[in-house]
Amino acid sequence: MVDFSKNNGLVPVIVQDIDTNEVLMLAYMNEEALKKTQESGYAHYFSRSRNKLWKKGESSGNVQEVKEILVDCDNDTVLLKVKQKGPACHTGRKSCFFTNLKTGEITMDKEEEIEYNFIDKLYHTLLDRKKADPKTSYVSSLYNKGENSILKKVAEEAAEFCFAVKDNDKKEIIYEAADLAFHTLIALALKNIHPESILEELKRREGVSGIEEKKSRKK
């Protein structure tokens, strides 16, 4: 029996190659993800950044066929032994554990380039920029300056977008909207919130009166 009561309904999941015992990745499951995994025989997880259930490899095709499920002595951590198709990491590497903490050296080559939709790819790039050199990366320099600097840029870009709309300049509207979207994504990545979470929230509101939706928020 897995205990989902300790961490907001989630448990960490260690994923191990059934043939080599190499640790491939760490993810999280809720009860529904574990049930889907058991029923289908393929790994399903719960994304904290996207706030939704997902099947490993649903977009890349790099699925994990589950061969064994183990639980630790406290019943709050799961170990999956899997047959991995393709690389396990979104970077295209076999494992997510490829960076030497002391030296920063990349210890594993990419096996393939994994194609994601543009927003997802951009989001992961922004996450990677947290570790980049602020002297050579604009995004990293914003992260280095801190939350206030990022939010200041979002506010500035929002104002410039409003002025462009007011001026009725289509080219400028598109340009400033892109700037606003980009800096909003930086702020989301700062908080590790995947942009798909925003799309899910918009889907949730579909068919709901805007007036009723605002009333429900006040409640």
What's this model, at a glance?
With 219 residues, this protein is of the alpha+beta class. The protein is 41% helix and 17% strand.
Tell me the distance between the termini: 36 Å
Helix fraction bin: 40-55%
Total helical segments: 7
The structure class reads: alpha+beta
Q: What strand line-up does the widest sheet have?
A: 2-1-6-5
Low-confidence stretches: none
Order of helices and strands: EEHEEEEHHHHHH
> Compute the gyration radius: what is it?
21 Å
Question: Which shape, going by the Cα principal axes?
Answer: globular
Biggest sheet statistics: 4 strands, mixed
Q: How much strand?
A: 15-25%
Average pLDDT figure: 92
Give the strand tally: 6
Protein topology:
Elements (H helix, E strand, L loop, with lengths): L10 E7 L5 E7 L1 H10 L3 E4 L4 E4 L8 E8 L6 E7 L33 H11 L9 H8 L1 H21 L2 H21 L5 H10 L4 H9 L1
Protein described:
It is a single chain. This protein is α+β, with helices and mostly antiparallel strands. 41% of the residues lie in helices and 17% in strands. It has helices spanning 31-40, 118-128, 138-145, 147-167, 170-190, 196-205, 210-218, and strands at 11-17, 23-29, 44-47, 52-55, 64-71, 78-84. A hairpin with a 4-residue loop joins strand 3 and strand 4 (52-55).
Main features:
globular, alpha+beta, 219 residues, two-stranded antiparallel sheet
